[in-house]
Amino acid sequence: MVRVQQEEFDVGAEIARLRADPQIGAIACFVGVVRDLNDGESIASMTLEHYPGMTERALEEIVAQAKSRWELTDVVVIHRVGALRPTDPIVLVAVTSAHRGDAFAACEFVMDYLKTDAPFWKKEATPAGERWVEARDSDEVARERWEPDVPKP
Length: 153
Hints:
Elements: E1 2-5, H1 11-19, E2 26-33, E3 37-38, E4 41-42, E5 45-50, H2 54-69, E6 74-80, E7 82-84, E8 89-97, H3 100-117, E9 120-126, E10 129-132, H4 137-144
Parallel strand pairs: 1-6
Antiparallel strand pairs: 2-8, 3-4, 5-7, 5-9, 6-8, 9-10
Helix pairs in contact: 2-3, 3-4
């Protein structure tokens, strides 16, 4: 399941829904949160923008790739857009599987690909004014480790 929304999500409710399946033995979960500091500057707020339809398709493709690599029961990706403040949750990735190894790996894979392949744009409000957040080299490096021809660390 993939959702892009402005509203805050309820992590507990999402996990409870996933736990209802008696076939699962593991739930791996990641929640991304707005920080109050980035690149040494305080952040008053962050605005996330996206292309409706295109963004959901990109997220669904990432989920499909994860499901093709690991034995998964379910994958939930909820990403927020709009104006957010420090401590607000931005993204939830929850992955279920019969075993923890598949769930952990797939959860990390989904986040690594989401950071590089999902069409979101972030603008931060700082004391010096607004600025667009640039892609980080570390995100690309994290994604590359999942590619078959890239040596694993």
